[in-house]
Amino acid sequence: MFDKLAPDQVSKPRHLFKLPGAQVVRDRRNLTAKVSIGDWPVWIKLFRPSDTLDRLLYARRSGKAVYAWNAAMALMKAGFCTPRPLIGLRRTGREGGAEGIVAFEDLGGHVSLARLLADESPDTAAHAKLMFALGECLRSFHDHGFRHRDLRRGNILVAHSGDGWSFCFLDLNRLRIQRRLNSMQRLREVEKLNLPVLDLPTFFDAYMPDENSARMAETYRDRVEYADHLEHLPQGRMVRKAWYYAWELRTFSFARRP
After folding, report:
1. What is the per-residue pLDDT across 74-105, written as a single tens digit (0 to 9) for each?
2. How far apart are CA 214 and CA 193, in angstroms?
3. 8 Å CB contact between 104 and 86
4. Residue ranges of the alpha helices (H) in the chain?
5. Do residues 167 and 209 touch, judged by C-beta distance below 8 A?
6. Which residues pair with 160 in a beta bridge?
7. Do 168 and 212 fall into the same domain?
8. Backbone conformation region of residue 19, classed left if phi is above 0, alpha if psi is from -120 to 50, else beta
9. How many angstroms separate the CA atoms of 115 and 112, rounded?
10. Domain containing residue 145: CATH number
């Protein structure tokens, strides 16, 4: 892929976002766009520091672009689906790890889990199969010791083939690997998915088959509802984050980056 880049695009990779037909889909802390490089449709993500502290934190680290690349390689090696990384660039020099670019292949034929779950009148039988397949996939994902740490509906792509479903994982720069995840760590991993209440027993039958699925579904629902309650308090976003990180300390385990 690098041989398809012009010299100025390698030295100043932000120029990639100005290619003809580039579609910016997210421009907040980080910048994400879909572009075409030659005949390749690719997704490009620019990681950029949010403040001075962010620059200092990554001054002596590889950076999020490197972490995302390594995480994708680790998942593919373990047999999980994730878009193949094609380009990886990071700024050199002091504080260089805070900024970098990574480009991934475009996975045609996939839709986000968010889009599927937004259907207000889904086919009940097909929906149940989807939830069971998702539970099986995430159980295997966590049995391998992977902690995504930002599992949201938009970070899982879904494809339907024949009578089954397959899943691909996105946004991997926070991923960690540890020896074993306990029940609470697994619950915390899937909380941000905010799964439909009616589907919870089916999901947990597949996700935690050794646990009481009804009890785990109830615990999950209570935690999601409580997190939503915190969000609506004054300074709710900050309060919710404090609650989240308090549980992060309570469920801490030694983990490594890929």
Report:
1. 999 999 999 999 988 887 766 667 788 999 99
2. 18
3. yes
4. 7-11, 52-57, 64-77, 113-117, 124-143, 183-190, 200-207, 213-231, 236-250
5. no
6. 165
7. yes
8. beta
9. 5
10. 1.10.510
* Number of domains making up the chain: 2
Cβ within 8 Å of residue 136, ≥6 positions away: 206, 207
Predicted structure pTM score = 0.91
**Distance in angstroms (rounded) separating the CA atoms of residues 148 and 146:** 6
How many CA atoms, within 13 angstroms, populate the side-chain half-sphere of residue 228? 10
Instruction: Compute the chain's Rg from CA coordinates.
Output: 19
**In this predicted structure, what is the pLDDT of residue 95?**
60
CATH number for the domain that contains residue 95 = 3.30.200
Residue with tokens 């549980």: 247
Claim to verify: residue 218 and residue 148 sit in the same structural domain: yes
Average pLDDT in the chain = 89
Alpha-carbon span 216 to 172, nearest angstrom: 26
Residues 95 and 117 in one domain: no
Same domain membership, residue 88 and residue 188: no
Residue 183 lies in a domain: yes
Residues 91 and 118 in one domain: no
Domain co-membership, 140 together with 79: no
